[in-house]
Amino acid sequence: MAPVKSLSGSVNRQLADAIASARPEADGVDPLLRRSDRADFQANGILALAKKAKANPRELATEVVSHIVTGEGLIKDVEVSGPGFLNITIADRAITETLAARAADGDRLGVPLKENAGITVVDYAQPNVAKEMHVGHLRSAVIGDALRGMLDFTGEQTIGRHHIGDWGTQFGMLIQYLFEHPGELAPADDVDGEQAMSNLNRVYKASRAVFDSDEEFKERARKRVVALQSGDKETLELWQQFVDESKVYFYSVFEKLDMEIRDEEIVGESAYNDGMPETARLLEEMGVAERSEGALVVFFDEIRGKDDKPVPLIVQKADGGFGYAASDLTAIRNRVLDLHASTLLYVVDVRQSLHFKMVFETARRAGWLKDGVTAHNMGYGTVLGADGKPFKTREGETVRLEDLLDEAVQRAAEVVRDKAQDLTEDEIQERAAQVGIGAVKYADLSTSPNRDYKFDLDQMVSLNGDTSVYLQYAYARIQSIVRKAGEIKPAAHPELELAPAERALGLHLDAFGDTVFEAAAEYAPHKLAAYLYQLASLYTSFYDKCPVIKPAPPQDVAENRLLLCDVTARTLHQGMALLGIRTPERL
């Protein structure tokens, strides 16, 4: 089916044509359409045009209105207000017909695909091998997953990259310990996620204790790092055992978070090890990097430290080792040259912003970030506790991600059980997982990513306010209405006059595609979350004021209202799915 043009887009086109007819020299002027409290839409572009033409704004607006066809087509009425605004009212028929066209387009709801879509590599969900995932890993995973959902829906091709920490000096310590204590790790196939992490924790603590107390072991561990970086076969085999064991654990946590992590998209720091010497050589040969005190560094005149000296990006250390800059630059080469990415999107803690600013600038100087290729660090804020401080346990330890998710599900189970009607205990537990995990995700995604937010489970699982539970119950309520409707099915009746609550809901439904495109373009999942919350709120108002089943309205009215219910449910379902949140059929 052909995409459905949004009502705002259609109005914009008509206004642009009217402006061009009134003032041919103004062809191409944007009417600057926006939603208004006084009408369905308001056009503000006349003011800018009047200033440019040195004309009276109200007179010019009146002239434009004379070229607009009104009635029962698209625009029912348009009036001049204020200094030269145009207040536009959409015809009821246009709203109903557009919703019917969206309803006929399945899951896409008439939303078009992006023209000239590109390839976006999304770097997100980056846990560390041999370490537990904690609350600090939450936002990267949740935000990155939502961004991929929105971008994919618009037609962009996304490629995930989980740049896990699987390389570095600590692995010399761990591997050397395993050489001297064989059999400490069971094969990854024989353990579940919790056992895997338990094994890794035990080995890490034991190896750290020996490393800190035995100088000879410390020296052997350092030599083991060299063997690892040099590709020694036995060393690599033990290193791979750590990685495999950690992946078992990662997958168990991401499954609990209701996220799909593809094995081929886990490309850690180690994957770029062989390419880092070439990256350093190329940067030095091109003059982008220079030697300073034995290290290979890149300087930036505009980035200076407290002593007003340039802050360098260290590509290669004086001892020949490589750090994060080398692996990140090598990753950029791979993602642009081999994956043909047009956009590189990094969902990384905002505290890494300076690092990525220097990495991106270095890549541009080297010609690896070419014209037409953009790189963006989607820096995110911190998860705070109720006291407004970084979220910690009572003992001051970082909160384990698994524990946080388990508690969210337990709280959700209490809410679901309290409201449950005809649900078995198994169904309550299933819904609790969907509600609890959805609550955690939505609390994160409904906040602008660059802001900190407070983790408050009581608020997150509340049925009132801006929560995913409120949205999920709105969806479940619609499904209940549809079941009770029996033989009455959704159908469009464009000839019917719409009540104010029906109009408001219909107009908001029509804005779904525009909202997704805007949120995806700005990497702003909170804008989609805000749209969905308003949708659920408008539906609640519609439900209160416009009976669908009882008291029974005329059949044509009931069918038209069921169409509104149907498109609302499908929009909620699709919108929540893009954010990675499930919508249970019954609650």
From TrEMBL:
Annotated GO biological process: arginyl-tRNA aminoacylation
SMART domains xrefs: Arg_tRNA_synt_N, DALR_1
Locus of motif 'HIGH' region: 127-137
Subcellular location: Cytoplasm
Entry's Gene Ontology cellular component terms: cytoplasm
Pfam families listed in its UniProt record: Arg_tRNA_synt_N, DALR_1, tRNA-synt_1d
Catalytic activities: tRNA(Arg) + L-arginine + ATP = L-arginyl-tRNA(Arg) + AMP + diphosphate
Keyword presence, Aminoacyl-tRNA synthetase: yes
Family, as annotated: Belongs to the class-I aminoacyl-tRNA synthetase family.
Protein name: Arginine--tRNA ligase
Origin organism lineage: Bacteria, Bacillati, Actinomycetota, Actinomycetes, Kitasatosporales
